[in-house]
Amino acid sequence: MTKWLPRTYLTLVYLLLYVPIVVLVVFSFNESRTGYAWGGLSLRWYESLFNNRAMVTAMWNSLWLALSAATVSTVIGALTALALHRYRFRGKKLLNGMLFVVMMSPEIVLAISLLALFLLVGLQLGYVSLLLAHVTFCLPFVVITVMARLSGFDESLPEAARDLGASDFTMTRTVLIPVIMPALLAGWLLGFTLSLDDVVVSTFVSGPSYEILPLRIYSMVRVGLKPEVNALGTLLLVFSLVMLMLSQWILIRSKR
Amino acid sequence: MKQTLLSLSNLSKQFGGKTVLDGLDLEIYDGEFITLLGPSGCGKTTLLRLMAGFEHPDEGTITLAGENLTHTAPENRPLNTVFQHYALFPHMSVFDNVAYGLKMEKRPKDEIRQRVDEALAMVQLQDFARRKPHQLSGGQQQRVAIARAVVKRPRLLLLDEPLSALDYKLRRTMQVELKRLQRELGITFVFVTHDQEEALSMSDRVVVLKDGLVQQLGTPREVYERPANLFTARFVGETNFFPGTVESVQDGSITVDVFGLKRTLRRPDFPVQAEQSLHVLLRPEDIRVLDPDDENGVAGKIVERNYKGSTLDSVIHLADGTEVLASEFFDEDDPAFDYRLGEPVKVSWVDGWEWLLPEEASQRSEEELPADA
Any stretches that span the bilayer, and where are they (chain A) (predicted)? Predict the structure, then answer.
């Protein structure tokens, strides 16, 4: 009695979490055209997915965008976190608070204001506007991730490096960055995933010249659910699993 | 023979309006083991950080072997630091930690390997070169930190409470090991601690600091037996303070009334005159506990007794409420030697073992001193 209740509960929770994903993966190999009837094993939706030029382009666009947005926001975010951690300056609290404002404010507000800004300065909507927008909403997450690592950082480590003859720059390169590397990687991955699956902001600031995957899927689904989407979903799932394992592997290695 | 290596003159430092060092002067001799001793907040760590170059003084100069270092960056100073919590680089192996300083000097690979191996052998860690710091015990990490600091053969080694994180037994072992290293390497050690026992047992000279000022500078024996003021007397070891009144002053001696007991004592260095009040300082081991019917001594009764293995430590209350600490060695003739609580006794001391200090003008009553960590 006491044992089966928690077990059932746990099973239900996990079913709720994973059944939709399992369904998606299974139906991506479904021969049948309709989404809810099993017609035998087939790779035809994968084939049709890769023959869909617009889809493949959107996929590469999305990957490239996520890669560049994550990288840019990690660089800026790490430097911001370092500045907030190491120096005292006027407006430090304000800067810190403003990061949270960006994180907490509704995405739609961010989207509208970014669009308004881009129109105001006459920026053509496309890769650049998307990149700027994505860096904006990724930045706070990177800063917070890196700050968390820095707050547990032993302040005497940089001093020890200086004491042993390292210049400030050498110390940063050989001690500071390696020590906060796990946080940098975590921040980068967070930025990457945030950018990859963003819909709201991207809807507003993307242009016809640069179509990205979430928007492409969204427009596909509107005209009816094609099994191709299942195949795409499965591929994305595999991709994120690989990324996750990679990051875990790097984290474990860095601890050794 | 005693050559000054590091000379600090008129050092002042404030943090946010609070004076931490106040015009401090100090000469550190080549090859000595000098300890900066004081309660937390006395300025000892700031002083060390000024020497290392992590902080810069508001005023004053730091000179090492004739070279002005006051504004030199830490990486350009020929001295190294052992940090309180070791500050080992967590992502590097023990070998790379120790090699770091030599790599910064761009030494050839062979030389680095050889010198790191030597340094690790010196602290008996040659088999641990490939480990990461978190795979070592506290004492081993401490030894890596020391090897890393001495591998560059600095003129001066700064040690910031390096033993405070170790347990009592390990601390003892490391104290002996540090002394051995210092003898073998011939490097000048500047050691910071708040543990007076550690300071006394390790140092050639002790600097007692309080409120950014040197209270006393001397050998451990001088600091313990002839404290310069009440602060040093209270901070270093346990002390009984008996109030005394000068009855008369002779050529080389004075007669003092202590609890109605007239004693003729050696005349102190400071000026004395009749009627003056002064403090008679007696360490617990200077106290003699006598039979209650003894003619000499002040009457009191035992209120506490602590068996300490080699000594019997007791607390005696005198008639006026003064508390006296006494520490007596066990006698071979009387192995059962002990006191009953409430037992009446008399308290006295051996002539010449007392130390006299004048009343201090701005005397703060019983300052809170941190307990030994």
Answer: 12-29, 63-85, 97-121, 127-148, 175-196, 229-252
Q: Do B89 and A159 touch (CB under 8 A)?
A: no
B112 vs A153: CA distance, rounded Å:
28
Instruction: Locate B78 and state its tokens.
Output: 């020929």
- By the CB < 8 Å criterion, does B139 face chain A? no
Length of chain A: 256
B373 pLDDT above the threshold of 70: no
Structure tokens that stand for A65 in this block = 């965008």
- Looking at the domain assignment, is residue A147 inside a domain? yes
Q: Is B148 on the interface with A (CB under 8 A)?
A: yes
Calculate what percentage of chain B has a pLDDT beyond 90: 46
- Report DSSP state, residue A16: H
Looking at B252-362, list the stretches that DSSP marks H as alpha helix, in order from N- to C-terminal side.
Answer: none
Residue B35 near residue B194 (C-beta atoms within 8 A): no
Q: Does B15 touch chain A (CB under 8 A)?
A: no
The number of angstroms, rounded, from the C-alpha of B217 to the middle of its chain's C-alpha atoms is 11
- String of b and e for A3-27 (b: at least 16 CB within 10 Å)? eeeeeeeeeeeeeeeeeeeeebeeb
Evaluate if residue B368 carries a pLDDT over 60. no
Element (H, E) at B122: helix B109-122
- What would the pLDDT profile of B223-233 be if each residue is shown by its tens digit? 999 999 999 99
Q: Which residues of B touch A182 (CB under 8 A)?
A: none
Give the three-state DSSP class for B68. strand
**Nearest in space to A173 (alpha carbons), one of A161, A189, A183, A187:** A161
CATH number at A108 reads 1.10.3720.10
Amino acid at B303: V
Confidence of residue B364 (pLDDT cuts 50, 70, 90): very low
- B107 in contact with chain A, both atoms CB, cutoff 8 A: no
Tally of domains within chain A:
2
Token output for B109: 């690979």
The residue written with tokens 């120096």 in the block is A87
Q: Does B54 touch chain A (CB under 8 A)?
A: yes
Q: What is the mean pLDDT of residues A45-50?
A: 86
Asked whether B82 and B164 are in contact (CB, 8 A), the reply is no
Do residues A27 and A55 both lie within one domain? no
Integer Cα distance of A152 and B322 in angstroms: 49
Interface test mutation site (partner A, options B56, B75, B77, max chain A beta carbons within 10 A): B75
Which residues of A fall within a CB distance of 8 Å from B90?
Answer: 179
Distance of CA B349 to the CA centre of its chain: 26
Give the dihedral sign, CA A212/A213/A218/A220. Answer: positive
pLDDT of residue B1: 57
**Domain B237-356 adopts which CATH fold?**
OB fold (Dihydrolipoamide Acetyltransferase, E2P) (2.40.50)
Q: Residue A46: inside a domain, yes or no?
A: no
Residues of A in contact with B53 (CB under 8 A): 162-163
Average pLDDT, chain B: 88
* Residue A146 distance to chain B (closest CA, Å): 17
How much is the pLDDT for B369? 45
Interface of A with B (CB under 8 A): 154, 156-157, 159-167, 170, 174-175, 178-179, 181, 254, 256
- Residues A161 and A91 grouped into a single domain: yes
Tell me which amino acid residue B285 is. E
What pLDDT digit, counting tens, does each position of A93-107 carry? Answer: 898 888 888 888 899
- Let me know how long chain B is: 373
**Dist. CA A138–CA A72, nearest whole Å:** 9
- CATH level 3 topology of B2-231: Rossmann fold (3.40.50)
**pLDDT average, residue stretch B159-186:** 88
